[in-house]
Amino acid sequence: MAKIVISEFMDERAVALLSARHEVLFDAGLQKDSTRLLASAAGCDALIVRNLTQVRGELLTALGRTGRCKVIGRLGVGLDNIDVAGCEANGMAVISATGANAQSVAEYVVTSALLLLRGAYGCTAAVAAGEWPRAAVSNGREIAGQTLGLIGFGSIGQLTARLATGLGMKVQAFDAMLAADAPVYAQSGVQPAALDDLVAQANVVSLHVPLTEGTRGLFNASRIASMKAGAILINTSRGHILDIAAVASALRLGQLGGAAIDVFDTEPMSADTALQNCPNLLLTPHISGLSVQSNKRVSFMIAERVLEKLAAQEQQG
Ligand SMILES: NC(=O)c1ccc[n+]([C@@H]2O[C@H](COP(=O)([O-])OP(=O)(O)OC[C@H]3O[C@@H](n4cnc5c(N)ncnc54)[C@H](O)[C@@H]3O)[C@@H](O)[C@H]2O)c1
């Protein structure tokens, strides 16, 4: 029987699947207590994390000390909280749930685009109070016919393109790892584009790249300034890719028509006066990939893959 440590929240039914075969320590708050986390991780055969547990430094050393730990399961996508090379050098495979939360993120993106383009949903209090701000919210834009520019055309980018196309949007994508003649473009009806052209032409720009040295600071103040006047910017990828202060300033100047931001350099972010009462800004606490359905899909995908890995390990041993 292997020992599995789960340091963040996971669907209870997926935890039960693991517990039926192995000894499981499941504590959704474990990542906040580094002493207990280090003690629990030492000697485990598998560690399952979400995005808050930093699998590097002391924790990686504790995991690698006995040579027992063979797999790190990541309940989500994006491996920037894991030293993947360090894990692999210590004999630990890193598995993520690529694709399992893509629908939730894609729905968040099109919902944000619809809300921000239309701009008609912020007047509930005024209407309930007997005001009638009809003129102020009559100039919203339809989404059909607008151009969506996707930065990154992997699982989430492709699903977002499918939803957006269904709403009548034209879709362009820039992906540094995909050739312009990659079949996925023709299959999806999405136009491949150079980054600068896409940014200059899109009415809605949405970021779907991992945080790497190549994407850090990609959407800085000058890139934001090169966006079409009145365009919408959506970031569900990672903090550090987008300069939030530059977004706030572009929104206040009216150069950007709206923004939705789900991910931040530091989470939770510290109070930021630049973002207080910023117009046409939607902020969410890193939940675009989280829904009832995606949590179940992600949790079962990782539980099953960890079980497979442990079974293969048992056979070898
Ligand atoms: N906010 C959330 O809840 C949430 C949920 C899931 C994923 N994410 C983030 O979204 C990112 C994308 O997820 P995914 O499932 O689509 O991943 P994916 O690996 O399927 O796709 C990422 C794409 O980005 C491309 N890419 C990599 N570097 C690039 C660069 N420098 N320039 C342009 N393109 C580049 C890759 O070629 C790939 O096609 C994840 O890495 C993660 O950080 C956030």
Keywords:
317 residues; alpha/beta; Rossmann fold; 2 domains; 7-stranded parallel beta sheet; 12 helices; elongated; binds nicotinamide-adenine-dinucleotide
What does this protein structure show overall?
The protein has 317 residues and is of the alpha/beta class. The protein has 2 domains: 121 residues, Rossmann fold, CATH 3.40.50.720; 182 residues, NAD(P)-binding Rossmann-like Domain (Rossmann fold, 3-Layer(aba) Sandwich). It is 37% helix and 16% strand. The protein has 12 helices and 12 strands. The strands form 2 sheets. The protein has a 7-stranded parallel sheet, with helices on both faces. A 5-stranded parallel sheet has the order 2-1-3-4-5. Strand 6, helix 7 and strand 7 form a beta-alpha-beta unit. The longest helix has 25 residues. The chain is elongated, with a radius of gyration of 22 Å. The relative contact order is 0.14. The mean pLDDT is 97. The structure holds nicotinamide-adenine-dinucleotide (NAD).
Helix-strand topology string: EHEHEHEHEHHEHEHEHEHEHEEH
What percentage of residues falls in helices of 4 or more residues? 25-40%
Distance between the termini: 12 Å
Rounded to an integer, what's the Rg over CA atoms? 22 Å
Report the sheet with the most strands, covering strand number, pairing sense and barrel closure: 7 strands, parallel
Task: Estimate nothing, just give the exact number of structural domains.
Answer: 2
Q: Please, how many helices?
A: 12
Side-by-side strand order of the widest sheet: 8-7-6-9-10-11-12
